[in-house]
Amino acid sequence: MRKDKIGRIDRVLLFAAGAVAFLGVIFIYSATYSLQETGLNILVIKQAVWVLVGMFVLVVIANTDYLRILDFALIAYGLNLAALIFLLIFGGERYGARRWITLGPISLQPSEFVKITVILALAYFLGERREKIESGETFIKALALVAPSALLIFMQPDLGTALVLVPISLAILFVCGSRIKNLVMTMSLGLLSLPVLWHILKDYQKNRLMVFINPDLDPLGAGYTIIQSKIAIGSGGFFGKGWLNGTQNYLRFLPERHTDFIFSVIGEECGYIGAVLLIGLYTLIIVRGIKIANDASDVYGKIMAVGVVTLIAFQVIVNISMTIGLMPVVGLPLPAISYGGSNTIVTLAGIGLLLSVSRRVNR
What we know:
Blueprint: H1 11-31, H2 42-62, H3 66-70, H4 73-90, E1 101-103, E2 106-108, H5 110-128, H6 136-154, H7 159-176, H8 180-192, H9 194-200, H10 203-213, H11 224-235, H12 247-250, H13 262-295, H14 299-323, H15 341-361
Antiparallel strand pairs: 1-2
Helix pairs in contact: 1-2, 1-13, 1-15, 2-15, 4-5, 4-6, 5-6, 5-7, 5-14, 5-15, 6-7, 7-14, 11-13, 13-14, 13-15, 14-15
């Protein structure tokens, strides 16, 4: 791998990423505004700190040749797998799941970091086998590389994050030139396995899928959040009720409003206009990412760019869709907007990878 001097930074992408992260802090403040008397507004301070940490990580990665980063790809992925195994064996339960490693006042979610380390691992693995990338053997080995992390995350349980790894892997394999028949067969096997998957899902996961079909099936239980979310977004109208003036938010009708359902707060307070502007920022990030992937000077950069773009696009589509009732609730955060240090750092680290790849293109 050659380590060449890198060029100028993509300022448009950097601006869009910074704007999204800043809006995340603003709307987490709004989502927790009615809870200040309970002390929960400390979440705003924590999120601001995570954004600063994430921006620092972004700058470091953007100023590092991504080929140097790939030298440590398999080590990072291996350590991430070790952290997931540690969680399953020694991790304490929180909200019925083992997802967080607590280090004093800091809680980290290893499954979030897998989203980046699996992209790096695939980039290294497939890049080193680019002459054999069309072979069935390489295709199977690539899936086998991702499978342990997907299984460990599913066992936490965290269905949403485990599912994220599927489109990332398939998108990377597709752009690398894997045979279409292999991709079609894999997706077909996935669909055929759905009846088996249904029987191993937790009861609450089954309930989420059932209320997706009919939210009125359990309006005060599993269907409550999605019903309140749609009320919040619909009541925002075209221009919204104004920042800090969302009644569904302020009166606490909307659960999980600072995490998975923060888009509902944005829709209620900023209306259609605010939602479109936010989606526009994400679209700008995705379009710039696609251009970077298309212009990448080597297969390593192309794989990383495609992986990051797929990660962000998939999470944005699923999160927004579940808040308006177009998809079942699977617990995926809105990238760099929803509260959470791991989510914020991973998203900004991904943007840093895109910037690093673009700098090689623009050198």
